[in-house]
Structures are given as structure tokens and as C-alpha cells.
Fold each of these.
Amino acid sequence: MNARLLDNKTAVIYGGGGALGGAIARTFAREGARVFIAGRTQAPLDAVARDITAAGGQVETALVDVHDQEAVEGHADAVAKTAGGIDVALNAVSVMHDQGTPLADLSLDAFMRPIDGFLRTLFITTKAVARHMGGTRPGVILTLSEPGSKLALPGLLGHAVSAAGKEAFTRSLAAELAPANIRVIGIRPHAVVDGPAAGSYTKELFEQAASASGLTVQDMLEGDNGLAQGTLLKRLPTIAEVAETAAFLASDRAGSMTGTIANLSAGALVD
């Protein structure tokens, strides 16, 4: 039997009870990782943990507010003490934000919400886990961004700036942590769907814009004039595809990859 991708690895996922974070946690556990998932609500964490346990995986849950730097650092310290270190970390915490409002109608708070929300939590979680990585135990930090970092479209100011910021953070951090034997890789999916249907976060994010256009979220994403038609593959990435990619990037098989962004936009961006 071939070795699993993440055998003997310890992985920490913040936002591990969400649709995407949960899918990645399940995939990491299936691939052999001991998974520690954290979030602000116990019920979703428990649901993910039940799935992992039922499949024979190893998982522990913790209630952690990723905006609380002291709490995140305490959690990372506890994981490292329990597992002897941290091998893989991912911040999958989502921040609801405006998409579609032009500058003239956009408030400063709405503009700053994704910038502060995404980058603040990314900084806090990354700083907490990086202390427990590297050396003779290689580390991997994965980040998540969106095509808004490179798409020139109206109404995406806060979204685009936050996405570009996460990618700049990824590249700069990779240069800083490489000497410590820590890789940093970004994953850039388009709007993510769950098989043939929108994922829960994607649906919530696009509901207002879809309603204003007289469309369902599904039509806006995958209809005749939906986002999927703007990709080369004429479809959007699935949650499962993002999770499988994350597992590969976190594994030693991707050991020469760092400081780059994995483009999962289905061809919405070509770079």
C-alpha cells in the first residue's frame, strides 16, 4: 500500500468547522494527518470531527476566536506541546464582505472589512504556528485568496485589495521563512461550488448581488451568463478539488514549492 500524503504530520486548521476548512480537515485526516481544528462555534467543529473519527482519522477540536491573538497563541502552544510540533497550518476563516458596490456608494468600513478581517487573522494565526515549525521538522503554511487579486472588475475594491494582500503576504513570508525550512504556498480558487451546487459561504456571499440582479445564486455562478462561463473550463472549482490540492501542497511531494500561488480558478485567470 502506498504511503498517504500526510502520514505522521500534524495539521492545524483555523476555521475548521466551515465548508472549506472542514473539507480540507477531512482530506488531511484521510491522508494520515493528525488534525487539530479550531473555530468559534462548537457544533460545526463537532460535525467535522465526527466525520473524521468515523473514517478512522485523528482529530481534536478547540473553541478559538482567531481575532484574539493571545488565545490563538495559547492554542498553537498547546497543539505543539501535545503533538511535538506543527507541520501544516491553514487559516480558512471567512469574512463576509461587500461585492458589487462602486466607490461612490462604498463606505470606509465596508471597504476595510475584508482587508482588516482577512489580513489580521492571517497574521495572528501565522505568527502563532510558525514558532513551532521548521528546522529538522519541515513546516508548511497554506493561505487562501481569490481571483479578485488580479481581476480588473468594478465593485470589488475591498475584496480585491484583501486578496492581493494575502498573496503578497504569502510571497514575502515564504522568503522570510525559507531559511527555517518552512514553505508558504497560497491557493487561489474562484467562487467555490460544492459539486453541482454553491458552497454555503459562496451562496451567502453572492446572495445579495444575485437578488439585486433578479437571479438565483446558482444562475449567477453557473447559469448561461454566470461566472463559470468566464473560465476556460466553463465551470467553477469544487470544494473537493481545493481540499485535494491543499493536501498535495502540504505534503513532501510538493517539497520544492514555496512562495507561489496555486491557481484554481478553472482558467478565469491564466498566469
Note: Helices lie at 19-30, 42-54, 69-83, 108-130, 157-177, 200-212, 217-222, 239-250.
Amino acid sequence: MGAKGLLVDYEWCTGCHTCEVACQLEHGYPSDQWGIKVHEVGPWEYAPKKWQYSYLPAPTDQCDLCGARVAKGHVPTCVKHCQAQVLKYGDIEDLARELAQKPKQTLFCCASA
């Protein structure tokens, strides 16, 4: 079995923070700790009338890719609850092939997976 990770298609992330809340509830983290955290990028104008404003969910050091859930055949809770379906869980090799097919994605390899 290969290493696992998360592929994030941040082109479509709406910044709803559902992944953060689902993770906190799943693991019992206090309100100031997360296994995944949504970061705001921008807003700033990088050319006339062109703006950068996006969101990027990123796993923290507390992320274990929901090892207990995955062991039962489920996906990590952040993936399950992502309303925009921008998070994908799987083998690093498979996710890397998807990453190469479009911009505005990033791949996170979680050490504890």
C-alpha cells in the first residue's frame, strides 16, 4: 500500500471552513486548533483590474488523515464534508498524476498517513 495524501483543487475552494469544523469535531480539538486550516490568499491587484483572491485548505501537523476513519473504509472527514468537493484523498502516485493535469491544485503528503 502506497503513501496517502490530499489533493486540493483550490481554484474552487469557497473558504466555507466546513473542512476545519468537521476535523475539529471528529478529533475533539478545541476551537483554536485544527487538523486542516483554510488560509486566505489576497485580495490584491496584480494587474489592472485583475485580482488574486482565493482560499487554500492546508493540513496541519495534527493531521493524521483520519486514520481511524480510513481504517474502517471511509475517507477523511474533511474530504467527506467539503461542500465544494475540492479535497481528494488517495495514493500519492495517483494524486500526483491528477495534479499534473491542471493548475491551481496542490498535493499534501501527510507523514502520519
Note: The radius of gyration is 15 Å.
